[in-house]
Amino acid sequence: MKFSTASLSAVLSLGLILTLSVSCHHSETEAERIPRDLNKTLTNEMSDSSDLAGMDKNIRLFMQQWNLQGLSLSIMRNDSLVYAKGYGWADEAKKREMTPGTILRMASVSKLITATGIMVLQEQGRLSLSDKVFGPEGILNDSTYTEIIKDKNYFKISVEDLLRHKGGFTTRAGDPMFSTRTIMLQNRLDTPPDNETLVKIQLKRRLQFEPGTSQYYSNFGYLLLSMVIEKLTGEKYEDWMQENVLKPAACTDFRIANNYYHQRYDNETRYYVQDNDEPVQEYNNSGKMVVRCYGGNDIRALSGAGAWVASTPELARFVASIDGRNEVPDIISAESVRQMTEYFDENTYSLGWNDTKPDGEWTRTGTFSGTSALVKQFPDGECWILITNTSTWKGPQFSRYTTELMKKCRAKYSAVLPHRDFFYESE
To answer: Distance between CA 362 and CA 403 in Å, rounded?
Structure first.
């Protein structure tokens, strides 16, 4: 078929117009996908809906039942943030309501953040999960550590053992991360031990089982992982994590917690205990009696084991960045996601997660005085994240009741959750 010069010119012009049109549309689409500053722009009113009034009622009844001052809830569907709302008080005395931008202590959900940092280092070729932690060939190979060790089982501890709580540590003599006063008295310390001192004290003790042969939940093990990150990067744990893990995930307001109310961040909640929770001695052996959630323990010293604070929308954004879905770009490879979520059996912890079932239900919990956190990824692509600013007498078992609330609300209201994505400015 032959075209006249005029016809050919017309065809070329039409093609140029179509190309420009597609190009402009693509540019507009990309412009619309600008990540939102979640903590500064989301409001409770943005998630208000008459269709979800019943869910609001269920949540408020739940708060009343457990005497919770406040909580924050975020819901994702297929990596889109469809719901983000605060309930109750962030600070009752100041009449400050809980909002989506309120940041809260997430306790052991912090371990999921730390585990991701380890996977990033593995992808960078700076460690392998099989690497040993202690000994001359280990990562923490400082002579001050190595020379203290009498139990040679320490030299068998691998990075993966720490991730899976198989390092040989138990709490039969108390959790070292929550026994600061006792450790100070036993070791005649005038001040709380820093991380290096605490590790030296622990290394003098025998392990309770051979690494890799059993498991026992260990906060201390995740403190060691935080120190592994510092040793390999030459940076403070918090600084490196913010720049190399959280910032790539578009999470800009994760911080390491402080211990006292007067040290809170501007947009951080106040923490509460139940009325019958008696004051306790301050963790630093000052002799003062304090509210348990403010000075009862050295929260900041937990580091990557339990010290992160964040909002539930930003925590949702983080989960979206490590879940293997394509809607939000992951900050780790598909192989790393597979390793973190691989299921072995009911008695094997996943990497960072508490539990990852073969059907795609993943769970991460966190609890200590003043807070309870639950991240629940469901097989149908929904992820619910709920954090309270009030502790209950149920302690770690409280996550069971939070799970029941989530499943009840999902059954009634998943179908009417709106189709939108608060992660981006266009929504």
So the answer is: 12
Q: Assign residue 314 a region: left if phi > 0, alpha if psi is -120 to 50, beta otherwise?
A: alpha
Q: Copy the structure tokens of residue 401.
A: 């009741």
List 310's β-bridge partners, or say none: 104
> How far is Cα 242 from Cα 424, in angstroms, rounded to an integer?
21
Task: Please check whether residue 87 is in contact with residue 50, taking contact to mean a CB–CB distance below 8 angstroms.
Answer: no
Distance CA 48, CA 375 (A): 22
Residue-wise pLDDT for 53-102, tens only, equals: 999 999 999 999 999 999 999 999 999 999 999 999 999 999 999 999 99
**CA–CA separation, 203 vs 196, rounded Å?**
11
Cβ 369 vs Cβ 178: under 8 Å:
no
Residue-by-residue DSSP string for 37-63: -HHHH--GGGG--GGGHHHHHHHHHHH
C-alpha 387/C-alpha 105 separation (Å) is: 8
Question: How far apart (Å, rounded) are the C-alpha atoms in residues 16 and 192?
Answer: 70
Cross-strand partners of 415: none
| Alpha-carbon span 228 to 119, nearest angstrom | 12
State in Å, rounded, how far the first CA of the chain is from the last one. Answer: 49
User: Can you tell me the mean pLDDT for 3-12?
Assistant: 40
Q: What is the mean pLDDT of residues 303-325?
A: 98
| Averaged pLDDT, 112-130 | 98
When pLDDT is cut at 50, 70 and 90, the band that residue 20 belongs to is: very low
The CA distance from 299 to 370, in Å, is 11
Question: How much is the pLDDT for 177?
Answer: 97
Q: 3-class DSSP state for residue 227?
A: helix
